[in-house]
Amino acid sequence: MKQVYVAMMTLLAGASLLTACSGKQAKQEVATERIENVRVAPLATSTIGQELEYATNLQAVEAVNVVPVSPGRIDRILVEVGSRVQKGQVLVHMDQTSLLQAKINLTNLENDFKRYEALKETGAISQQTYDQLQAQLSVQRTNIAYLESNTQIKAPFAGIVAVKNYENGEMYTGALPILTVMQLHQLKAFINMPESYYPLVKKGLKVTLTSDTYQGQSFQASVYNVAPTVNPSTRTFEVELRVSNAGEKLKPGMFTRAQISLGQTSAVVVPYQSVLKTQGSNERYVFVEKDGKAKRYTVTLGQRFDDQVEIRCDSIVEGDKLVVAGQARLVDGVKLNVVE
After folding, report:
1. How far is the C-alpha of 167 from the C-alpha of 160, rounded, in Å?
2. What span, in angstroms and rounded, lies between the C-alpha atoms of 187 and 140?
3. How many CB atoms lie within 10 A of CB 60?
4. How far apart, in whole angstroms, are the C-alpha atoms of residue 187 and residue 335?
5. SS3 per residue for 98-136
6. pLDDT for 117-152, tens place per residue?
7. How far is it, in rounded angstroms, from Cα 166 to Cα 95?
8. On the CB side of 180, how many CA atoms lie within 13 Å of its CA?
9. Architecture of domain 52-61+184-264
């Protein structure tokens, strides 16, 4: 009797195990067979104006650090921040001790050379000795010209003093320039544009700059140079802009927005909410209904128009059914039930 009881319990346990496994399998089948309700809209191309805007900072076209060739004591700085200077104007006097010593040495050499000329005529010295002294005299004159340029530092072009880092009597160590001189009548800026626009951007293309500093005003600029290469990491190319600044209202370092019009083009424009963003990255993607299932595609965003945005993706075409509602719950390959 006891043996029969044991056998019956074993059978019941096996049946319970089978039932549990069947239940798990059923749940898994239900999970994999889940169907999501969504709404879709056919993709269509529209004609849009390519109005692009980029943030950038203005820079001086010409800016130079005023420094001596070697460290030394600053005797006198003749200008202040904001001073307007002309090309060739003396800006800084450095200590003249070395220059004065060099001039004394030059005077001694010139006196020696006069005596050597007289001795050479009488044959008292050789031609080689005469030539050696003549070479020393030439080197000393060159050295004085070098010291004069290093002692009296001049402006390389007309401009304005933008930075002053030292005062009279201080030692110039080379860590910072004594002065920085800039030209303000023309400024430049750099922007990085997606490589897809490369064929459309040419030198001379008109650009409009705006600044929060001057509300309601705009400044005309143009493309000055287009980089001959594309950055393989960012898929962008650098564009240099130039802006005339005759009134000097704009300043180097000022934040501006560059607006560029590249004409009209055909593009796919979709509801902005239909585009999803991968958490922790800048990847954007959409879902398209394909054969009753969700298909995920990575896209690149273009211009935004209120609640619409331009998308670019080579794998989706006009007529594809874009999921515009219910896309937040989707994963790639899940079955879809399209509702009206």
Report:
1. 18
2. 43
3. 22
4. 57
5. HHHHHHHHHHHHHHHHHHHHHHHHHCCCCHHHHHHHHHH
6. 777 777 777 788 777 878 888 887 877 777 777 788
7. 14
8. 11
9. Beta Barrel (2.40)
DSSP 169: T
| Topology (CATH) of 63-181 | OB fold (Dihydrolipoamide Acetyltransferase, E2P) (2.40.50)
Which pLDDT tens digit goes with each residue over 213-257? Answer: 999 999 999 999 999 999 999 889 999 999 999 889 999 999 999
Sign of CA dihedral 321, 324, 326, 330: positive
Predicted local distance difference test score (pLDDT) of residue 11 = 43
- Cα(first)–Cα(last) distance of the chain, in Å? 67
Kindly report the length of the chain: 340
Q: Report residue 61 as tokens.
A: 């076209």
List the chain domain ranges. 52-61+184-264, 63-181
Nearest C-alpha neighbor of 250 from the set 4, 93, 60: 60
104 touches 147 (CB < 8 A): no
Distance, CA of 339 to CA of 39 (rounded, Å): 5
Strand partners, 76: 93
How far is 116 from 123, CA to CA, in rounded Å? Answer: 10
DSSP 231: B
For 178, the token pair is 């004594």
pLDDT tens-digit series, residues 171-222: 998 889 999 999 999 999 999 998 888 999 999 999 999 999 999 999 999 9
Instruction: Please count the other Cβ atoms lying within 10 Å of the Cβ belonging to residue 205.
Output: 17
Long-range contacts, stretch 202-205, CB < 8 angstroms, 24+ apart: 202/226, 205/260
Structure tokens at 116: 């050597």
